[in-house]
Amino acid sequence: MIRKFFISISFCLAGICSLAAQQVQLQSPPLANKDARLYYFSGAKVDSLLSVVDASGKATFNIPLTDYRGMAALVVPGAGGVELVVAEAVVSVRCDASELNTETVSFSGSKENSFLKYIFTNQSRYVQQQAWLQAGNQLFDAGSPVLSAIQPEQAKVEAAMQALDKEINSSSLYSAKYYRLVDFMNRLFDTEQKRDSERAAFIRKEMEETLDIASLYTSGQLWGSVLNFYISLFNHTAGEDKQQQYAASIQRTLQRLPAPYYEAFLAGCITETERFGWREAQDGILAAVHPRFAPSIGNLQRALGAYRAKNSKAMPDIAGLSRTMEPHSRTLVAFYDSDCASCVNEMFRLIVLYPQLKEKGIRVVSIAADTDKKKYENGIKDFQWKDKLCDFKGFEGENFLNYNVVGSPSFYLLDKDNKLEGMYFAVGEVIEGEL
Q1: Where does the pLDDT of residue 90 fall: very low under 50, low under 70, confident under 90, or very high at 90 and above?
Q2: What is the pLDDT of residues 321-350, one digit of tens each?
Q3: Which of 25, 39, 274, 434 is disulfide-compatible with 73, CB 3.0–4.6 A?
Q4: Residue 356's domain is classified under what CATH number?
Q5: What's the predicted TM-score (pTM) here?
Q6: What is the tens place of the pLDDT at every residue in 349-395?
Q7: CA–CA distance, 366 with 390 (Å, rounded to integer)
Q8: pLDDT at position 18, please?
Q9: How many domains are there within the chain?
Q10: 3-state SS string over the chain?
């Protein structure tokens, strides 16, 4: 029996963009005056565009990218939704019913969506025919005339499936790439469920060397499903060193990925190690990250910051910090929040002790988690050091994320090579070891 993994989209809202590039046009008079959303994907990130179906039944969505090739989801709340391929300059969606679904829509002039429908329609029919014919083989004796009639039909179905596979493999359309990714997910799912170590080796080789990560990046929920089942594959088929094996496999895969797929894939795998509680695997993956790599994805920033701090690795460069010609042997980075009473007290102590730190050649850099500019400017009036930073994004600011700051005040003492010498929660702890 052939087992299949069925894709369903889970939606979340993101920023709304309005710059015109690729366009999705909806024409549906029965849905006039209803809100509509188009969702499109970049790894685990989901962006959405909002439009209103006008009185004539038209709505237009402009994806602010010139080269998006991937899946999208068109949703009309209360009336359903449909998945579609966006890989052409314009995709026209027609729906003459009050319900939006795969049965009620058509895609005029879209080679991508026509081919995707063609693939899945024929594949589904062939799989059903094959299942019925295989069942017939088990119902009749070897000499039965019915069985002799079944066998040629089986050969026809197998030939048709091979011809379809050949057609898919020779196509450069995104819809063909998407189908191959779904096929990979099916094989991954089946191998993980059966705990088949022999087949797992082939799945791992495909992931590390040839799997189309660029097309997976814009595939929607398939992205997260592949990453989740891939780590589960090691959990079910590898030995006691499964975490080390997983980390090594991810490292090999990362070596062939350019931006932005490298960061998205790395962040996705780190998310999976956190979900499984695989700290050893996480450390093994992060150990191979270049010392100057500065991620933009939040969970990856925090994980990498925590790893570097724990292992005395070079910390990320501080965003917004100007270069200085003044000699300094070390840098003390102070993270604080003006709304935090203990932070205010510690920063006052830092003001008092700053002359002694300066004399020791320690550069002081303060970074505030403030979101109110006036409060921030009032708070830094007595700071004697030059380097005072704030991006007004709170604990989601770039430096707070890069340094894995989960509470304030926090003090990081760095050597001249930007390596962490110590992390403290009070100025007194710093002074105790330095003065």
Answers
A1: very high
A2: 987 767 788 999 999 999 999 999 999 999
A3: 39
A4: 3.40.30.10
A5: 0.71
A6: 999 999 999 998 999 999 999 999 999 999 999 999 999 999 999 98
A7: 8
A8: 37
A9: 4
A10: CCCCCCCCCCCCCCCCCCCCCEEEEEECHHHCCCEEEEEEEECCEEEEEEEECCCCCEEEEEECCCCCCEEEEEEECCCEEEEEEECCCEEEEEECCCCECCCCEEEECCHHHHHHHHHHHHHHHHHHHHHHHHHHHHHCCCCCHHHHHHHHHHHHHHHHHHHHHHHHHCCCCHHHHHHHHHHHHHHHHHHHHHCCHHHHHHHHHHHHHCCCHHHHCCCCHHHHHHHHHHHHHHHHHCCCCHHHHHHHHHHHHHCCCCCCHHHHHHHHHHHHHHHHCCHHHHHHHHCCCCCCCCCCCHHHHHHHHHHHHHCCCECCCCCCCCCCCCCCCEEEEEEECCCCHHHHHHHHHHHHHHHHHHHCCEEEEEEECCCCHHHHHHHCCCCCCCEEECCCCHHHCHHHHHCCCCCCCEEEEECCCCEEEEEECCHHHHHHHHC
From 155, 171, 187, give the residue that closes a domain: 171
Residue 295 domain flag: no
Q: What is the mean pLDDT of the chain?
A: 88
Terminal alpha carbon distance of the chain: 73
From the CB of residue 304, how many other CB atoms can be counted at a distance below 10 Å? 28
Rounded Cα gap, residues 243 and 273, in angstroms: 9
- Domain C-terminal end among 91, 109, 127: 109
